[in-house]
Amino acid sequence: MEKYGKIIIDAYYGYFNYLVDEIMYPSWTNYFWWLVGLSLAVWLLELLFPWRKDQPALRKDFWLDGFYMFFNFFLFSLIAYNAISNVAVEAFNDFLGLFGITNLVALEVSSWPRWAQFALLFVVADFIQWNVHRLLHRVPALWEFHKVHHSVEQMGFAAHLRFHWMETIVYKSAQYIPLAMIGFGLTDFFLVHIFATAIGHLNHANLRITYGPLKYLLNNPIMHIWHHAKTLPKGSYGVNYGLTLSIWDYLFGTAYIPHEGRDIPLGFDGVEKFPKTFWEQVTYPLRKKST
Ligand SMILES: [Zn+2]
Ligand SMILES: [Zn+2]
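Above: query sequence and zinc ion SMILES. Below: predicted holo structure tokens.
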């Protein structure tokens, strides 16, 4: 027990120092300044080449989403996630230790070239995320949390990171064991993470981009706007579940782009009554259960 207490304290202390360092010392391998830079770059593109020309530069919920961005990228880790996940990982390893298992590497990939290791990790992680995203739509209790992301009514880059912190827990838990089996402790995940952030920003941006034939591989704004459509095809729980890659939706028949959809209504039934502030939105699924 004492060991777990120390892990919790180290996690807070370590993450706080990490965050201060990130902000104070910009560098090319720095998440904080990459997030700021990517956001400004995509915002500038939106201002120069808007898809919906009458959408205000500071669209509806611009500042709310800006706050979500930093909360979900950094603050949630500081407040809780880092400590919880470090304890969970340690407890999980202790649990495996009970059976004499010390590592979960099932696939010998450490001799592969580094780019191939990353490519494998990226594709596997993205496929897991696609499946988790489907579950967020399919399972009613999870949908209550995912509604926060779908309460976006006007799309812009920052809508990308408007989501309930519970999603971080659900996604990361679902990824942990499969990635631990092939992930061989690969921590230098930086490029993959930045790439996914850039594509995610663009998916939500007020930009008319499809990447030409690459649209069958990469998710894009025209595909993702239909994911946010208020009206879904009859009998479906959702369409275009892809995060970074679009290929899974084409392979599994969930791709749906009936037309460009520039001005389609976004949200879900009853979105007008959905809470409008950060605090009300993150507590909404919890309050909803108790009533
Ligand atoms: Zn969704
Ligand atoms: Zn989205």
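The pocket of zinc ion (ligand 1) is lined by residues 133, 136-137, 146, 149-150, 227, 238 (CB under 6 Å).
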